[in-house]
Amino acid sequence: MPTATTRSRLPADERRDQLLDAAAEILVEHGAAALSMERLAVEAGVSKALPYKHFDNSNAVLVALYRRETQALGRAAWRALEAAGPGDDLIRTSIHAYFEEMGRRAAVLGALTAPGSTVAAVADPGTAGVPFVIEVFTHFHGLDRDRAKVVAGVAQGALVGGVTTWLAGHATRDEVERDLVAVFTTLLAPAAAR
User: Which of 58, 59, 40 is nearest to 50 (CA)?
Assistant: First the structure.
């Protein structure tokens, strides 16, 4: 019969998420330099060897955490677009959903992308976010793939800049969302309307 101190085995994906959650806590509270595999094991309440079953080293943990957090932003926007009604403003809907999710993840993403951090460049060397934005523009906004490729990088840069402006306290979230809606509306407008 199991005792109160017996730990149950978690499925690999749940264990990985548990480790990433623990890494996020360390990162936010103490910074990236404080993250080691040993500290991660202690924070997660697992054996010292277990984190190595999921990650090669602490840098790999940070890369995985960055990918998890940024993918959650995209999933939130995609779900909001799928749930939108026929009369909904899709641009406003997706930007609002993105900022809602960003609000939940700001501390972790801010720590991962702090000045001097190379995590984003290592985690996303091919800028995987751009193909995602292209897919959003073609699937939900009806842009042809060539046009979507032209505006995707600009749109992603505007999002990152908007989030940075908001988190730095230079503008309110509502102001940034409003301005991004205006930028995206212009970017996604048919050529004749521009």
Answer: 40
